[in-house]
Structure prediction request, 324 residues.
Amino acid sequence: MIHGSPTPLPAGGRNATSVAFGLVCDSGTLSVLDQALRAAHPQGARHEAAPLADAALGARLARLWAHGLLSRQPHPDERLRYAYRPTRRGESLRPFLVALEAWESRWGAGRPDPPLTSFCACRPCGEPTLVCRACEQSTASSHEVRSVIGPSGGGWRSIPPPPPRLRGAPPPLTRYGHFPEAVKVIGDRWSAVLVGAAFLGPGRLEQFQQCLGNPSALSTDRLRALRALGILEREGSSWTLTVKGRALFPALMLLVDWGQRWYEAPEGPALLSVHRSCGQPFAPRLVCGTCGGNPAQQASTTEGSDLSALAAPHRLTAAGAMRN
Ligand SMILES: [Zn+2]
Ligand SMILES: [Zn+2]
Prediction:
């Protein structure tokens, strides 16, 4: 497994956002990632991990291992299990999950206890805020960033393929504990892409909708669900984001950034973003809104994490060979 360097994508194929959304935007996968990062908490805080032995979660662990987001080794105590922990690639999703947690605490079930956010200099920690890496100014709103489709394309190249058939029915939403509202939006790859496309301006979402193929089967239901959740609203003939939907900007921007950091299309990025006020290419960074510290400190991937917290029986990991 290559964990440390970006994965090259084939020319003319699906781009980095397609891969990132396809891999991460799945409710069970988000639950596994959340638990993996909590188990490897940088300050050594003990988090209770839900048992991950059922087939649906075991298959997701194996998939994240196959994609280099988790490493695994035989469980120290139990012969028939693997112990998993995040690699550098997996760890670098921590800011995305912290941003999702911040969204959940404002729009969903409240702040999880204990929070995934790590402690910065101030306590209690301030709101995680998105800033521009070039000028360090807050760019928490999508209005402050101009994004256009990059050289590795939009349209079908940005749309994740159909999800792999993972063994076992997805566990009920109540199992996702930490951000039940967010997984209703980001826990489905195509819903997440539709919300992402809505940030690109009027008409874009409709274009992506066409790329999803049969609209009645795929996108109409999702658009209706997103409207019921208060994420999108209909304005004349096009869909626009509500305030609640716009508040997903930091999380989605961090996910796009993660995808473009770890998956490289030969043509270049999938999305080009410029910070309007400083004019520099926009690269997002999450900081504590009060002290400027890092609310998503990465855990060391070589020591300190509790290897026994995440385990799945060996027999489930044959699913690791599954297609994307
Ligand atoms: Zn800037
Ligand atoms: Zn702080």
About this structure: The chain has one domain: 13-165+174-183+242-321. The first strand starts at residue 7 and ends at 8.
